[in-house]
């Protein structure tokens, strides 16, 4: 009995990538675009890979559905190892993976409904079923009233909604997002991110996205990795990364003022998430240890996964004088 409930509560890893490597070779030399990447994305997670241009994000994403064949390593999606598949079996496995693109990649000669139907034609869905499914998908992305429009008549946000409807046509468990909001203005970006989060929650859709925008990670990701020169420099659940003092992602999400306290103070950074974010931790610290705590900087933010806060505090006196207070913060798991 206990065993079966343990099995039920175990999170299923929808995407598992191990030791992935991909290089591009040309006459001018070789570029190691992806260099020994390991990545696990659990069911229902929204995982963001953040990095600058040239970091290797697109190559990594394109290796997940084998648009690029890795040089080494394995890619398993929904329990199926794609690296071992070719031809018909690979095409069938790809139907379980939807993809959306920065520039939408719509067929300009087809209507909105025709673009979405195209994905169903490819999978051999009968005509009558196609019509019903297209209507359902357009409703899902809020475009029922634009079914007969052509892409040229749509705004960027509407084009991306068509892209999302098309990507979801074959009921994939996984959606890959290749800079899906990079070509959109901030307001439209916001509405597309809200739609993705809504689809993630309503359909249990697992999303792996690549982006160079921290706001995307902040708004919808439950986990993230930072990619540089083909490698992950850090990776994990957002709530865990926030607690790592060396985390670049935590620093970018919650920039803290440089230390300006008078010499002799003890500087401590504290990070809270979930229900803790609403607890009076600083007041508690001041009361419990009789300290005149000063807040040097910090903020509380609502992230996709949780609410979180990070502050830099100055405690009067040297670290030795504040040992009990520092131990207390460490025991509560809010300071390193
Ligand atoms: N088809 C290709 N042939 C040769 N080199 C390539 C090819 N595709 C990518 N590269 C190189 O591989 C490296 C990683 O590129 P990739 O496009 O994966 O990075 P990225 O992080 O997605 O950047 P961007 O956001 O600019 O697309 C870069 O140095 C790039 O120039």
From TrEMBL:
<dbReference type="InterPro" id="IPR003593">
    <property type="entry name" value="AAA+_ATPase"/>
</dbReference>
<feature type="domain" description="ABC transporter">
    <location>
        <begin position="15"/>
        <end position="254"/>
    </location>
</feature>
<protein>
    <submittedName>
        <fullName>ATP-binding cassette domain-containing protein</fullName>
    </submittedName>
</protein>
<keyword id="KW-0029">Amino-acid transport</keyword>
<dbReference type="GO" id="GO:0005524">
    <property type="term" value="F:ATP binding"/>
</dbReference>
<keyword id="KW-0067">ATP-binding</keyword>
<keyword id="KW-0547">Nucleotide-binding</keyword>
<keyword id="KW-0472">Membrane</keyword>
<keyword id="KW-1278">Translocase</keyword>
<dbReference type="InterPro" id="IPR003439">
    <property type="entry name" value="ABC_transporter-like_ATP-bd"/>
</dbReference>
<dbReference type="InterPro" id="IPR018449">
    <property type="entry name" value="NIL_domain"/>
</dbReference>
<dbReference type="InterPro" id="IPR017871">
    <property type="entry name" value="ABC_transporter-like_CS"/>
</dbReference>
<dbReference type="InterPro" id="IPR027417">
    <property type="entry name" value="P-loop_NTPase"/>
</dbReference>
<keyword id="KW-0813">Transport</keyword>
<dbReference type="InterPro" id="IPR045865">
    <property type="entry name" value="ACT-like_dom_sf"/>
</dbReference>
<dbReference type="Pfam" id="PF09383">
    <property type="entry name" value="NIL"/>
</dbReference>
<keyword id="KW-1003">Cell membrane</keyword>
<dbReference type="Pfam" id="PF00005">
    <property type="entry name" value="ABC_tran"/>
</dbReference>
<dbReference type="InterPro" id="IPR050086">
    <property type="entry name" value="MetN_ABC_transporter-like"/>
</dbReference>
């Amino acid at each position: 009995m206990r065993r079966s409930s343990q099995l039920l509560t175990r999170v299923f890893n929808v995407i598992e990538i191990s030791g992935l490597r991909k290089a591009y070779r040309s006459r001018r030399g070789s570029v190691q675009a992806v260099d020994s990447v390991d990545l696990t994305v659990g069911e229902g997670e929204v995982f963001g890979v953040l990095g600058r241009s040239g970091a290797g994000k697109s190559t990594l994403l394109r290796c997940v559905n084998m648009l690029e064949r890795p040089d080494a390593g394995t890619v398993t999606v929904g329990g199926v190892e794609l690296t071992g598949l070719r031809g018909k079996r690979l095409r069938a496995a790809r139907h379980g993976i939807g993809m959306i693109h920065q520039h939408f990649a719509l067929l300009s000669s087809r209507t909105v409904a025709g673009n979405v139907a195209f994905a169903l034609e490819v999978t051999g869905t009968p005509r009558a079923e196609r019509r019903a499914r297209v209507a359902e998908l357009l409703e899902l992305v809020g475009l029922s009233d634009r079914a007969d429009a052509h892409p040229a008549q749509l705004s960027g946000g509407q084009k991306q909604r068509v892209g999302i409807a098309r990507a979801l046509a074959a009921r994939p468990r996984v959606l890959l997002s290749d800079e899906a909001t990079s070509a959109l203005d901030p307001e439209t970006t916001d509405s597309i991110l809200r739609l993705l989060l809504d689809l993630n929650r309503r359909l249990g859709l697992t999303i792996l996205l690549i982006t160079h925008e921290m706001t995307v990670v902040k708004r919808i990701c439950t986990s993230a990795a930072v990619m540089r020169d083909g490698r992950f420099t850090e990776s994990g659940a957002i709530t865990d990364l926030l607690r790592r003092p060396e985390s670049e992602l935590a620093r970018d999400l919650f920039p803290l003022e440089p230390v300006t306290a008078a010499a002799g103070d003890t500087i401590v950074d504290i990070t809270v998430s979930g229900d803790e974010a609403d607890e009076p931790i600083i007041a508690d610290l001041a009361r419990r240890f009789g300290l005149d705590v000063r807040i040097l900087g910090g903020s509380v933010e609502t992230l996709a996964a949780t609410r979180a806060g990070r502050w830099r505090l100055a405690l009067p006196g040297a670290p030795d004088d504040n040992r009990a207070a520092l131990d207390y913060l460490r025991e509560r798991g809010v300071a390193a």
